[in-house]
User: Fold these one by one.
Assistant:
Number 1:
Amino acid sequence: MAAAPQEGTRRAFDAAAADFTALGRHLWGPIGAATAAAAGLRPGERVLDACCGTGASAIPAARLVGPDGVVDAVDLSGPMIDELRRLSADLPQLRAHRADVTTWDAGGYDVVQSALGIFFFPDMTADTERLIGLARPGGRVVFTIWRGDAMAAAGRHLGRAVAAATSAAPPAEREPHLIDRINQAAAYATWLAERGLAEVDVAVHELRLTMTPDVAWLVITGSGYRGALANLDPDVVDVVRERYLESLRAEGVTELDATTLIGVGTTRLPVPNR
Ligand SMILES: C[S@@+](CC[C@H](N)C(=O)[O-])C[C@H]1O[C@@H](n2cnc3c(N)ncnc32)[C@H](O)[C@@H]1O
């Protein structure tokens, strides 16, 4: 029987957890901090951090809400949650949960935030709307996504390298996805407003990674791209690494675009009865 789509996502991030924190210094950390800052968090607030990974946005959020606040940080991946618990041992207000956030039940949050998570949902629109519904009326929502084809170059070079190392056919193009249509600021703002949010604003968070060989390989082993290495023997993975780095060199790739769009909005207050 084919694995559920969530299973593939979970397995890829389970495997990536060890290198996720190392890549975080270059990638997840700055994006997560910008996501938590955009939420305008205040001491004592209750936050849901969906698809929290190892806490790039959940940990700064926990610091901003302080000991009187709460951050429920939710991720599918057990290894990610274990690493988050280790990293947040001094932040009792951060509660890390291993769960599928598309079925998370608690609500009434002051802020619902998610950095680089919502495009993994099986139904991006319906599952995001459900998440928005977990914020209290007048609460804030912050969802961060990649801009354009940020990060895609790494996947292209990896796909070629895996094909060369395993003598397989080059990977097929990814199926078209909603995210391809809304990954620019104006389209993303429109999509968020259509989800019922008010005061929508989308900020562009520019980021470029310098692709030293170590960082370039971490981009694969510390992210969802890790899934492409599943089931390969370690010596084949070594060949993939060499081919991937060669492929980047051959095209003169020294930087990777890691720019994101940080979308914020507020949930509407009920209209009072006349
Ligand atoms: C690209 S990572 C981002 C992690 C973190 N927010 C950050 O910015 O570092 C995406 C995360 O989403 C998680 N994820 C994907 N679908 C999920 C779901 N339905 N419920 C909970 N977590 C999910 C994955 O396990 C992974 O840790």
Note: The chain has a mean pLDDT of 94.
Number 2:
Amino acid sequence: MAVSLDIHAEPGALVLDGAERADIERLVEHLSAVPPRLVDHPTWLAAARDRSCRLPARVLEELRRFRSDPGPNGCLRIAGLPVRPEGPTPAEAGSVERKATASATLLALCVMQLGEIVAFRQEKSGALLQNVVPVPGQEFEQSNAGSQPLQMHVENVHLDHRPDFVSLLCLRNDHDDRAGLRVASIRQALPLVGPEHRRVLAEPRFRSTPPPSFAAGRDPVHAVLSGAEEDPDVRVDFANTHPLDAGAATALAGLRRAVEAVQTDLVLGAGDLVVVDNRVTLHGRSAFVPRYDGRDRWLQRAFVHIDHRRTRGLRPGDGNVLS
Ligand SMILES: O=C(O)CCC(=O)C(=O)O
Ligand SMILES: [Fe+2]
């Protein structure tokens, strides 16, 4: 069972005050008017990068600290960001936000201090900012368009160059305030995984297939745990990672139990930003009931890489989209 937490009451969430909100609103207003007012455009992105240096000091400190060390739960929460309704929640499949709307601008501003925003040509038409919304007919899909529980995963498990950070800004929660972004870090789960299972999880005995949001992709064989034995990175998607032998299956089941024991649901409200460190923390989502009336749950999402140079060979024209 996941524990439900009110993000505003939770220690560790940075809750902005009125003056900080007003400062951010001014930044957003200026940046969203910068031509060509398109998030995916290099000129606009360069302006966003510059302006992001002027965020309130507490926000800059929080982002910088998180980049250095994501803490025990590998998750950063900033509450009270200035978000206003921007019309009805989209309901079409593969919905993205290319216009520099206020919320898109706000998200770009915040995450630009973590690194560079990236997207993948094979996913959501390569748009840098994506809408996370329930889509009619996709209720049972293991994707962010569904509304049944979304299994715990690292983002884009099949890719070597998966995001370092996954950022999600809430514009609107579901009608019943039930949907929770579910998070669990390997830092919290590892003590519950036995030494033999840890050893197996560190071996290349698992194969991952691309999630349904990807048009195509490889099926790499890989280890689930890598790096420091006492503080490893994790690479698993419980819907798309498959054990290659019986021992690997047992170890994966052990990890799954450990993740379930520590996972937490963050019920987000408008103006809450969560950044998940995709190297140490899994995320998923609890169930909710969409109504498709234009008032459904609506998050906007952006991926970030800390080291842009590392992927230069995969980014035509030195852009932000990996091919
Ligand atoms: O809907 C959510 O809270 C998370 C969905 C998700 O996994 C994603 O957008 O990457
Ligand atoms: Fe995800």
Note: The radius of gyration is 19 Å.
